[in-house]
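Friendly challenge for the regulars: who can give me the structure tokens for this chain first? No prize, just bragging rights.
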Amino acid sequence: MGSVRARAAAGATLVVALALIAAGTALLLVLRGSLLDQVDLQAQLAAREVAAQIATGTAYDKLDLPDGDEHPVVVVAEDGRVLAAGDDVRAVDGKPVAGAGKQVGTAPGPSDDDDDDDDVSGPKPGEVDDDERYQDGTATVDGKVADYRFALVEVEDTGGAKATVRAGAALAPQQDAVGTVRDAMLIGLPLLLLVVAGVTWLVTRRALRPVEGIRGEMAAITASTDLSRRVPVPSSKDEIGRLARTTNETLAALETSVERQRRFVADASHELRSPIASLRTQLEVGVAHPELLDVPGAVEDTVRLQRLAADLLLLARLDAGERPADARIDLAALVREEGSQRITDRIPVRVGELASAEVAGSRSQLGRVLGNLLDNAQRHAEASVRVAVVREGAWVVLRVDDDGPGVPEAERERIFERFVRLDDARARDDGGAGLGLAIARDVAVRHGGSLAVREGSVFELRLPVAGG
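First reply, four minutes later:
Bragging rights claimed.
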């Protein structure tokens, strides 16, 4: 049962088998009950026809009884004596019928005590009881024993003698009909189940054929590590088609992620190579000629290398899905704190409106975003760097702008890619690796906000108000 087709075929066959068994059982019960009602009616009519003759005064030896083969009839007195019996009826329920076909004795007449018993239940003299009883039994007719359904009707003759007319109807036709239907079902059920199993197998096989194609292509992609390949998409609009399209979307996202990681590793290696090579050169020169060692330059390269390593580590943590802390941070206070530490910047930072509003997140990461935005503004500004915090509904907006040449509109998204530095006037670099803005946007997104360039050189960080 390791195959989906086998499980589907087995499950469908089992369900159909249970349904057919239940339906077949119900059909047999209904059929048996209907046929039994017909047999009861036949026996009742035969019994009442004989009872009516008795009630109208016909002598027992003159009764017109049905043929014994169709409806065996026995008339029995209250004391058990057989008053009359049909032709060829030799026994009922294994008890011999003496004197069958003729009057055996005279039914006792009413006693004197019966004159005052008018209120006794049962048929009155010359009447037939309205109720009848039914019994299953056997009768021996012309030497053959068969099953019958007997109707028992009580009657009083004109002389007041009570008798019971017991008339039967053969059960063989009813039993044969039920048996025929049962046998047909027993033969047809396995054949129908085989058809259901076969059809389910074929339909499932056809339905799962695209899945096998998807699986085969995924296996080939895994073996070749070629993420540019895509699984075949069936033309149908069903679940399998959606599965194929989702798989291709996943492969595309995975390809993009892997390519991004490759570029990241390549760019990181390139960026790390320069400061490491410069630092090594200075140290080797210092070893050979101590008087020529450029200590400030070595320190600068070491600081640059340390910053780059810290940026790469933060990006790795962000890519790994690290969730920011859930602390409450006042952006206005964060701006004042950052501004107090930048008194030695090339251009003083001017602080505008500082609306007090708290956001939820990591203080260190949001501080890194603010620092990166101010570093970018310092790098490209000519004489002015401004920062402000304003409240706009459920958002807190941090704006950092400078009076530099601005970012061309076509490049306003590209500058947030990793290791990207523009080639125009804003690309003057004092050692940056092109990671600051990429880190700032990643942190903003993971805090539920956004970072974008609005007007030339205005960088706008939007974050949701804590608890808003």
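Residues 323-464 form a domain with the Heat Shock Protein 90 fold (CATH 3.30.565.10). The first helix runs from residue 4 to 55. Your move, everyone else.
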